[in-house]
UniProtKB/TrEMBL annotation:
Domain of life assignment: Bacteria
InterPro entries in UniProt: Cupin_2, RmlC-like_jellyroll, RmlC_Cupin_sf
Name of the protein: Cupin domain-containing protein
PANTHER family, alphabetized: CUPIN DOMAIN PROTEIN (AFU_ORTHOLOGUE AFUA_3G13620)
SUPFAM superfamilies per record: RmlC-like cupins
Keyword Transcription regulation: no
Key words, A-Z: Signal
Length: 136
């Protein structure tokens, strides 16, 4: 059964453009996204997407994974990034991160809107994000 938390995670992932085959996914409240670039590669069977993301104050992006690498850069705002196996990191303007393929991670936004620039290099045809339970 799909819990409310998992449903929220699914909706958020779709909002950021996490369905690699559907750039026009509807955006739920709490997050806005704009795919600024989408190209094939760097290898056969992969594609690279660049996405501008706005996250509303106090919004939580639930635990999820990607079928490829996620590289992000914080333009504005602040929040708490948790990546499985790593210490919690506080994001702020100028902070960047890289998440390895299939690595669970979550983001809890701070008290103001956060703007991110995120690059995904993922396997074509796979969902860009999959909600997962919080790691133990």
């Amino acid at each position: 059964m799909l819990s409310r938390r998992m449903f929220t995670g699914c909706a958020i992932c779709a909002a950021i453009g996490f369905v690699a085959d559907d750039a026009s996914a509807q955006t739920p409240s709490g997050i806005k996204r704009a795919i600024t670039s989408r190209i094939d590669g760097p290898a056969e069977g992969y594609e690279t997407l660049q996405v501008m993301v706005d996250i509303e104050p106090n919004f939580v992006l639930d635990w999820h994974t990607h079928p490829g690498t996620e590289a992000g850069y914080t333009l504005e705002g602040a929040g708490e990034l948790r990546i499985k196996g790593q210490a919690t990191q506080m994001i702020k303007p100028g902070f960047s991160w890289v998440t390895a393929p299939e690595t669970p991670h979550t983001l809890k936004n701070g008290s103001q809107t956060t703007k991110l620039f995120v690059t995904f290099t993922v396997q074509k045809g796979k969902p860009l994000s999959t909600p997962v339970p919080a790691p133990t």
